[in-house]
Amino acid sequence: MDIYAKQIAGLDVHKMDITTALSFFTQIKGVIAPNMALQATLSGVWQTFVARLADYDTAYAQARKWAQTEDIDTLDKERDHSLAAFLSALKAMAASPNQTKRQAARLLTFIRDKYSIAASDEYMKETTVIQQMTHEMEATDESRAAIVAAGLDDWLEDLKQKNEAFLVKMNERTDAQAGLQKGIVREARLKVEAAYRNLVKAINALSIVQVPEGFDYATVIDRLNAEVEHYRQILARKGVVSGSSSGGGGSDDQGGGGSDQGGGGDVLPPDGGSDDQGGGGGGSDDQGGGGDVLPPDGGGEL
What we know:
The chain is mainly α and 302 residues long. 62% of the residues lie in helices and 0% in strands. Helix 1 packs antiparallel against helix 10, helix 4 (70-94) crosses helix 5 (99-112) and helix 6 runs antiparallel to helix 8 (153-182).
């Protein structure tokens, strides 16, 4: 078979999670970028792919920024410190030689003992329990008076504020993720996939109608197919059956004969996480973490 009959093999890119897709498209760009003759021939198709990939990379980076847990972790630690301080002060007042303070603290201790609460609890469980406990401590005239009598009003107020600050940040993250799941990331993903399909069709057409002068077609196609095969193996490890690597028949990404019937892959953007890394427009695709940018539609913590 003439070497110029080589084709880029099919790959179900729509079954990739958001991080693996970014890595794959970035690797494809890296193979083609040094070939100026090919770029010139592809012209607008290549430029569109590069632009759509840049948009997707930007959306991904923003998603990672919004999904970061550093602020939440900091607020959780501050909340935990406030909780420990309040409980320590309550325990001290319950043992106070001052009878008024001691009796007030024992009433509050009775309320506190109704609630199982620990700094090691899951984020929202701890948040809810603290809300319930502090609410009950302020629910009656007797309990409010006990707080003042025990000298715990400042400690309790600090705990409430720290817990509320944590809840606000958690809600902000949840809202941001919900918007991303249905908005900018999804839109950018659809566009870069379409641009990739057009790029593949254009390059495959060159094998039939035009090979740019000075373009080592066979080597470039071999390198592109090596990337396709590598990412097909990644999908296989995730339980996704992708298209044949034998060449021209292609999959539904090629517009060719026969969409793959394999199961197990989420349609884009997949709701699940990834064990692959491609963040920031580069890097190895097998370096753990990073695919959990967006939670399932039902929510949930990263």
